[in-house]
Design brief:
The chain is an all-alpha fold. The protein contains three helices and no strands. The longest helix has 22 residues. One of its GO terms (molecular function) is insulin receptor binding. Keywords: Phosphoprotein, Receptor, Repeat, Transducer.
Length: 84
Amino acid sequence: TGPGEFWMQVDDSVVAQNMHETILEAMRAMSDEFRPRSKSQSSSNCSNPISVPLRRHHLNNPPPSQVGLTRRSRTESITATSPA
């Protein structure tokens, strides 16, 4: 429960998109299930807006589990070790 991050890495972008949508759908369903709203709460929310935290973007930052673990393709390994 509470805020957190979820990291995943897959080779296929279609698989990644489907996983993303499935996880979001499940999270929204759970959120609705655990946060029932009464009619009085819904109407009072108009006068008391809530603040929403900004979404953090990790453009070039690897997940914590991969810091220091860089993967090279086979061709990079071969060209890096081949004599000139």
